Here is the input.
Amino acid sequence: MKIRTRKFIGTIGLLILVVVWSLLGMTIAQTPWLASSKLAQGIFYVVAGLGWVLPAMPLISWMSRPDASSA
Here is the structure.
């Protein structure tokens, strides 16, 4: 697969990841057990804010892989 195609597919994948991650984060943030504790909110927002990077890293790595040389 050409790098251009991988970047297109990866961009769509990243957009889907960010939208789903943010919607899920907003849903969880509204739960009563989380809304009642400031410490839990702080931990949650740090984890939710940085957590999307872990699934995005392999996708970005795959996107930026060079094309196989055609010998």
About this structure: The CA atoms of residues 4 and 63 lie 9 Å apart. Helices lie at 3-29, 32-35, 38-51, 53-63. The mean pLDDT is 90.
